[in-house]
Design brief:
Elements lengths: L1 E3 L6 E3 L2 H8 L6 H8 L14 H11 L2 H6 L7 H9 L1 H11 L21 H10 L3 H6 L4 E3 L5 E3 L14 E4 L3 H13 L2 E8 L9 E9 L2 E6 L2 E4 L5 E4 L6 E4 L6 E4 L5 H12 L5 E4 L2 H10 L7 E4 H8 L7 H9 L6 H5 L13 H28 L3 H21 L2 E2 L1 H26 L8 H11 L7 E2 L2 E2 L3 H6 L5 H20 L16 E3 L9 E3 L11 H4 L5 E2 L5 E8 L2 H10 L2 H8 L4 H10 L8 H14 L5 H8 L3 H14 L1 H17 L1 E3 L5 E3 L8 H38 L3 E7 L2 E7 L3 H13 L10 E6 L2 H4 L1
Parallel strand pairs: 5-8, 6-13, 13-14
Antiparallel strand pairs: 1-2, 3-4, 6-7, 7-8, 9-10, 11-12, 15-20, 16-17, 18-19, 21-25, 21-26, 22-23, 24-25
Helix pairs in contact: 2-3, 2-6, 9-10, 11-16, 12-15, 13-15, 16-29, 17-20, 22-23, 22-28, 22-29, 24-25, 24-27, 26-27, 27-28, 29-30
Length: 792
């Protein structure tokens, strides 16, 4: 083979002798050695415990793995002999996996692979979309045709920037100039605004400045006075740009030019009426953050009209939604990055230490580019018929989430402290039990030590190896669950450790000291199905399958002593959506008659009367009901139910026989995805599937399963978002003492004054049921309690 080196001028020809020198065997024996030692890069297991030093002499002596296994009793080393005997099938499988298949039917000949003239227009469009910038530069001498038949040099595809772009950016230096800006904003129908702050945590951030734009290529920046702690702990007032004084920098010994900004109270006195005027529409990039910053300073933003980050997510859920990437994709513009502004490594500054003129340029550019993105994205949303989804669901949801995040939720820290001690006791007991089963003490959290215990001492079958040894992750332990009593204890130990560290011990440390409450962030632009996600902390992943996991919800309590927690949960909403979109008479009849859908399914699938359905039948039917929506096959169902694949196949076949329109829905959805590349929810939300026609069956199958599920899960996501908007407005209009706190999948959590409970529950149920009418009844389970667990 011709083997290039790491640098362009290094290369060598490797022949049979070269292979012998490098691998210790001739070329035809390489697969034998690899079959024994495995190949972690290709996930080939090999024989556990056998490396090159052992494998090469064995293959030199016996020639092949087959010969070696036939003569295994002749091997003098007992350890090697046992490893080969215990892993015979693994060795043969590994050899097969590393053997290149040379009999694949290839229709193309070498002549067919000759380079042809490429389509420059398509090539540049694709390279631009995929951000292959180095390849684009290599095409810089070409002239191409682009959309609208405009001819230009490829050089024109280079991005614009602050240095080359036409723009007018103003810095507001005086109260008189502030008054002029206020006059401009008050007369505008719509404007973009952006905040510059000291923190990414909106509720802890201090304002350094604000920028505004009322039209493309023009923006204004207001620097705001800010008191910072320097390195010696002294208070220094950091000002705006134009009245320079000398100040010792907190991070260097150089004198820097500092300027005077406007007092925060003066700025808010002028701007608050505009922010709080719902008739003047506001646009932003992740506007929820900016609204939260202003809310924490006592200013409520009304009239949120458009969020460019959310708009981009609706257009392309799997895309990049930060401003830098969006400006590149939609405007061919390279923005000033945050790292460009504050520096990197040892030279990195805090934002308030950067010269205000630079901050002004950065912030004004943000507002200007956001306005341009607003114009571009709005047009694209209209073209793809997605603007209505934004106007009716996504954009109205922003103020709802803002209020929820601002409100936060109260925690019972004493309960969590007591629970932490109880978990510590349980973990100590489990540790002793694990040591007993292992026959010795060891570091349970050490992958290497645990691997040696499980796979060398206890002789459990190796599931997967990594570069550093045996894999002992949860997936591996689940596979070994019934092999040894130690496995169940290890799984429980990991679960309790995670509960303790992730929730019980961590949540109290995240309480905001100003509010005394826990504030999560709800993300609109993460899940490709349209669902909301939660972060910092993630309150949607609090376990509910185990009693100890559920008990964490007991720590979530109302903020006032005479208030209660209300939990409202859609009942089997995805199954109801499936009944609606498929139109299957059997499913619809069950829901319309308010039957137990899983029992009804069991009766139809197993051919028995409803009264004769057993618990085991219902359990299997439940797995089928939910599994079908995720495109489950016989193999997956067999694993879930721990039954034979043939039985699982028969259950699925009977299901489709009894509910034929579900099968039709699945087939039609996959066909649509293959034809258009995407599927849609009832409200038109799209998800794209680039792998739906992939030649690899595994990759294509995964895309098909996601395509089947997306219209169901996505419609359920749209429904609860609409419910949140309706219920939020109803609470405001009713003046009830009630606050929406959390959204967890199909559940909404509130706190309410006790004397408002009944009226509040009626209001919540009405809003949730009427959010998105279906052809089957929508049911809501609602309950109140002294804490979230009691209310759930």
């Amino acid at each position: 083979i011709f083997k290039p080196g790491k640098s362009g001028d290094e290369w060598e020809i490797v022949d049979e002798t070269g292979v012998m020198q490098k691998f210790g065997v001739m070329p035809d024996k390489v697969i034998e050695v690899l079959g024994l030692i495995g190949d972690t890069s290709d996930n080939v297991p090999g024989v556990p415990g056998i490396g090159e030093k052992t494998a090469i002499p064995l293959i030199r002596e016996y020639g092949t793995i087959e010969n070696l296994l036939e003569s295994v009793e002749k091997i003098p080393a007992k350890g090697v002999r046992e490893k080969l005997k215990n892993n015979r099938e693994l060795a043969l499988l590994s050899k097969r996996l590393v053997t290149i298949e040379t009999k694949v039917p290839i229709e193309a000949s070498v002549k067919d692979l000759k380079t042809r003239q490429h389509d420059n227009q398509k090539l540049i469009k694709l390279l631009t979309e995929l951000e292959f910038k180095s390849l684009l530069r290599k095409l810089s001498n070409l002239t191409v045709q682009v959309q609208e038949d405009v001819s230009f040099d490829i050089a024109e595809l280079e991005q614009a920037s602050i240095e080359t772009d036409e723009h007018v950016h103003h810095i507001i230096k005086t109260e008189k100039e502030l008054a002029q800006l206020v006059n401009i904003l008050s007369k505008s129908k719509l404007f973009v605004f952006d905040t510059e702050t000291t923190s990414t945590d909106a509720l802890k951030a201090e304002l350094l400045g604000m920028s505004f734009s009322v039209k493309a290529r023009e923006a204004y920046y207001i620097p705001i006075q800010f008191k910072s702690q320097n390195s010696k702990g002294k208070n220094d007032v950091v000002f705006g740009l134009f009245e320079q004084v000398e100040k010792q920098s907190a991070i260097s010994n150089q004198q820097s030019a500092i300027s005077k900004g406007l007092p925060l109270d003066v700025v808010f006195k002028k701007l608050s009426p505009i922010f709080e005027n719902p008739k003047i529409k506001k646009v932003g990039q992740n506007i929820k953050y900016d609204a939260l910053v202003l809310a924490s300073h006592g200013v409520k933003v009304e009239g949120v009209e458009f969020d460019t980050m959310v708009a981009n997510y609706v257009l392309r859920p799997d895309g990049q939604h930060n401003m830098d990437d969006m400006a590149t994709e939609h405007l061919r513009y390279k923005t000033i990055s945050y790292d460009d502004l504050v520096g990197k490594g040892k030279e990195r500054k805090e934002l308030w230490e950067v010269e205000t003129e630079k901050v002004a340029t950065y912030s004004a550019e943000d507002a200007d580019i956001t306005f341009r993105l607003y114009e571009s994205l709005k047009q694209k949303l209209e073209t793809q018929k997605l603007l209505q989804l934004c106007d009716e669901v996504e954009f109205p949801l922003v103020p709802v989430l803002t209020d929820m995040e601002l409100a936060g939720v109260m925690l019972d820290t004493k309960f969590l402290s007591d629970l932490s001690k109880e978990l510590e006791r349980m973990l100590d007991n489990l540790t002793r039990d694990i040591y007993h089963d292992a026959g010795e003490k060891f570091n349970i959290n050490s992958t290497q030590q645990l691997g040696k215990i499980l796979f060398e001492k206890l002789k459990l079958p190796t599931v997967r190896k990594t570069k550093t040894g045996y894999s002992t992750d949860v997936a591996v332990l689940e596979t070994l669950r019934h092999q040894h009593s130690i496995i169940e204890k290890l799984l429980e130990q990991r679960q309790l450790q995670k509960l303790k560290s992730t929730y019980v011990d961590a949540l109290p440390t995240l309480i905001n000291p100003k509010t005394g409450r826990l504030h999560t962030s709800f993300n609109q632009t993460v899940a490709t199905t349209g669902r909301l996600s939660s972060s910092d902390p993630n309150l949607q992943n609090i376990p509910i399958r185990t009693e100890i996991g559920r008990s964490i919800r007991k720590a979530f309590i109302p903020g006032k002593h005479d208030w209660l927690i209300i939990s409202a949960d859609y009942s089997q909403i995805e199954l109801r959506v499936m009944a609606h979109v498929s139109g299957d008479e059997g499913l619809k009849e069950a829901f319309n008659n308010h039957e137990d859908i899983h029992a009804t399914t069991a009766a139809k699938v197993f051919g028995v009367n409803l009264s004769d359905v057993t618990r085991d039948m219902r359990r299997k039917a439940k797995e089928v009901n939910f599994g079908i929506m995720y495109g489950i096959g016989a193999f997956g169902l067999a694993n879930r139910l721990d039954i034979a694949q043939s039985e699982a196949k028969e259950i699925i076949a009977k299901y489709f026989e009894r509910f034929p329109k579900v099968r039709q829905y699945i087939d039609a959805t996959i066909a649509q995805a293959r034809q258009s590349g995407f599927v849609s929810t009832l409200l038109g939300r799209r998800r794209y599937f680039p792998d739906i026609n992939n030649k690899n069956q595994s990759i294509r199958g995964n895309a098909e399963r996601q395509a089947i599920n997306m219209p169901i899960q996505g419609t359920a996501a749209d429904m609860i978002k609409l419910a949140m908007i309706r219920v939020h407005k109803a609470i405001q209009d009713s003046n009830l003492k009630m606050q929406m706190l959390l959204q967890v999948h199909d559940e909404l959590v509130f706190e309410s004054a006790q004397n408002n409970i009944e009226a509040g529950k009626k209001l919540i149920v009405k809003g949730m049921k009427e959010a998105l009418p279906l052809s089957v009844p929508i049911e809501v389970e609602i309950k109140e309690g002294k804490n979230w667990l009691e209310a759930h």
